Amino acid sequence: MESKEFTLIQLKKTLRQLGLSQRGNKIELMKRLYEQDPSGQWKDVARAACEEETEQPQLRSRSESHSTSEIANEDERSGERSRHVQRTPLPDAESEREDFRETRMILDMDVEAVRRERDLLRREIELLRLERNHAIRTERSAERHC
Q1: Where does the signal peptide begin and end (predicted)?
Q2: For residue range 7-65, what is the model confidence (pLDDT) as tens digits?
Q3: Do residues 29 and 8 make contact, with C-beta atoms less than 8 angstroms apart?
Q4: Model's pTM, two decimal places?
Q5: CB pairs under 8 A, 24+ apart, for 47-55?
């Protein structure tokens, strides 16, 4: 799998377009896509999402500047000066924030799982040390009695 070829956002957009779950890490998302479409045609959808991402900021900035100048002109014509132009949040911005929150939550859960596993391994190492020390003491004691 070419995990570096696609971003997490591209994979999630592709999964959303295909109506699949967007939960999981990058490898899990790619696995889900390959399970759904073993031929790999989903990659074209993901690449299109990538191209769409690079084109949208240019389109947005043009349309936003045009809208902003129209609003300013209307305000000037009516004699009112607009100091602040409110912009509505972009529809994709909310979904990207949600994707970020979801990814952050998953990463936090992964970190917590790794910490727990580390703590368990430390306890296991300590138990093995105790068992080894006990075996050494028992062996020495048996040698003295012989």
Answers
A1: none
A2: 888 888 888 888 888 888 888 888 888 888 888 888 888 888 767 655 555 544 554 45
A3: yes
A4: 0.36
A5: 49/10, 49/13, 49/14, 49/17, 50/6, 50/7, 50/10, 53/9, 53/10
Rg (CA), the chain: 29
Which structural domain range is residue 29 located in?
1-50
Classify 91 as helix, strand or coil.
helix
Residue 72 included in any domain: no
Structure tokens, 4:
């570096």
Once rounded to an integer, what is the mean pLDDT over residues 63-73?
51
Query: With b meaning 16 or more CB within 10 Å and e meaning fewer, what string describes 30-48?
Result: bebbeeeeeeeebbebbee
Mean pLDDT of the chain: 77
Does 89 fall in a domain? Answer: no
Tokens of residue 64, six digits: 């936003």
- Rounded to whole angstroms, the Cα distance separating 7 from 22 reads 13
In a domain, 56, yes or no: no
Give a yes or no: residue 139 inside a domain.
yes
Torsion of CA 29, 33, 38, 41, to 10 degrees: -130
